[in-house]
Amino acid sequence: xxxxxxxxxxxxxxxxxxxxxxxxxxKKDVYDEKKHEELIHYFSPMDSVDQQHxxxxxDDQVLHYQVPSGAGYEQLCVYSSDPxxxxxxxxxxxxxxxxxxxxxxxxxxxxxxxxxxxxLVDASGNMAVTSISxxxxxxxxxxxxxxxxxxxxxxxxxxxxxxxxxxxxGDYDYNDVVLRISQQRTAVNQITVSVTIAAxxxxxxxxxxIRLVGYSYEEIDSVYTTSGETFNAGVNEQTLYPFGDLFSDxxxxxxxxxxxxxxxxxxxxxxxxxxxxxxxxxxxxxLFTRKKYNVMTGDYDVNYYQSRATRTLSYVITFKExxxxxxxxxxxxxxxxxxxxxxxxxxxxxxxxxxxxxxSAKVLCDYSVANFKDLPWAxxxxxxxxxxxxxxxxxxxxxxxxxxxxxASFGVYAEPGHSFGEWAEDHTRFYDWYLYPNLDMTFN
Length: 444
Prior knowledge:
By secondary structure, the protein is mainly β. Helix content is 11%, strand content 33%. The longest helix has 20 residues. The two termini are 22 Å apart. The relative contact order is 0.16. The N terminus is likely disordered.
């Protein structure tokens, strides 16, 4: 929600004093969380937010399996629909197996997913496919359909949306950075993570990273991109100024792997989201200027907005083979094992913005994390082509307010009975809100 100039100034003065006093103190924490909560609530577009909300639309689920003996099966794959008949089936999980093997794996399953398709695959690509309900925990291969998968099947991809203003309130259009992310097992000791930068609608310089939850820096043998490229290619070192502490060793700018504060493995995506999207400098006459990319359609001022092709890099992560516990754990590597986050510079410090589940991670930076609940600064949507809001007043993702005593829904996802605002008020219902966009208010 756009704020008037007077309210913005009042909030900025108060919030700056609160946060600055916290940052400047080395002896005690004088951060006033209650005052911060009051300020955030004052500027929130929501009248109420479910205090139990974790803002999740999917969750990890255990599947138990027994591979039949003697058929030469080498892989077990889980799909969102039948891979033998549906060219849009998405690969949700892949593990490597042998005949007679029994075990379990984790699959990240969207709440709206009603059925899973589990396939055993041999060395020639022949499949034996069975289906189970999404709440079923055991797979039975006694009745299967055989064949070869449709060509061009892609891994399950989720959309991650960020507000750039943490710890201040945002405008809640969730288009400041939009990433599409997938992961798949590509070898016994290898995971490939694909990252697409779909949009940059923020004003600030924004850095991006992915923490590998539960994996240490020392457990990784190597990381490379399939194209040999990096989102930071050609970046001017002056651009690193806000994140000087993170990139004090300039070689880290072009390293795909970084070590987190707790020795965790962190993928280094980009130090400047605008640069990462503006890789074609010819569009700016050879000069780098910050514009907003892929957040406006129709007629717009090209001095402030531009349309750019999305950009994708695939990071191949190879784990050390001598650690068999780690290799076995890759059967449970899901999209929930990835913690994509952004870093912005605010009031003399760097602040990380994570989805709610990981908001206290403090992966690369040390900052104060508020415990109160309001609209989050980051969301994950289990959809590869999620329609995010356009830039501009009235293009909030969605909210509900009382107007003249009557509750009304506003924003891009405001379909009654299927709205983002209703889901914000009740975390146990309205999971389907992201299927009901106002296409006139989204980037398509």
